[in-house]
Amino acid sequence: MTSATADALRTINADPFDPADNPGGLDGEGGMAENLPKGFGLMADACDEVADASERAIGAADASVAALASIADFAATMGRVIGVRVITAGSGYTSAPTLTIGAPDQAGGAQATGTVVVSGGLVVGVLLTAQGAGYTKAPTLTLTGGGGAGAALEAIVSGVTGIGTKPLDLPRNLDLPPVPPPVWAVEKAANWTLTPDDRGRVFFVTAASVTVTLPGAADEGMDAGWWCRIVAKGGTTTVQRAGSDTIDGGTSISVTASASIHCLSTTTFRSA
Prior knowledge:
The chain has 2 helices and 18 strands. By secondary structure, the chain is an alpha/beta fold. The chain has 3 domains: 1-11 and 23-77, no CATH class; 78-182; 183-272, gp9 (Jelly Rolls, Sandwich), CATH 2.60.120.640. The strands form 6 sheets. Strands 9-11-13-17-18-15 form a 6-stranded mixed sheet, with no helix packed on it. A 4-stranded mixed sheet has the order 10-12-14-16, with no helix packed on it. A hairpin with a 2-residue loop joins strand 3 and strand 4.
């Protein structure tokens, strides 16, 4: 450093350097020679804090993108026909009638399709072959042919409760994947126990000598509207009570074709 530069630096804040009266400037205690390295250290610390804050901001942005992707995934599952409930099985069907599912009410949607399952002259279920898209309410279901009459069906649309009038709430935790649609037609080949969540489901039993245990009629989630259907495709299926409940006045029934099981009270089931 030249003498002129040193002299210039010794007039910090326009005060001439004097070790006795002004211990600052360039050389004195607390002057630039001592504090400049400290200043650079503070600047380096500040840069580190800015870098940390930037990383946190980037992490928050990534989380926001992931949340938006979860919303998009959930929205993509809405408006589809995810099942068909048998309201009335009808009678006299000698073959599967043709099912026509009404067109979606949103422009650009896709029409759902499905095939009817008949057993013992009754309509016992529907296997969906395409869920479609763009439904904001339950579509009309029409059956033609099959030789029988009296069957009635109801479509279940994702994102719509009941018969399609009340939207479901969005998930509270957007990090979770969308809930998969319920399965309304299930194949079974071994003994199992029904639960309140099996309300309205159709079970195709593909093996012989299978035993099905009913849920307790007084269990939480059970009421007089609970029902399911058992279709014995592989041989006789036994449906037995739980605890001291009764079914058709006894402890069990044998199903050789198909039967609907209905909960009538907190102790009683009947078959139809």
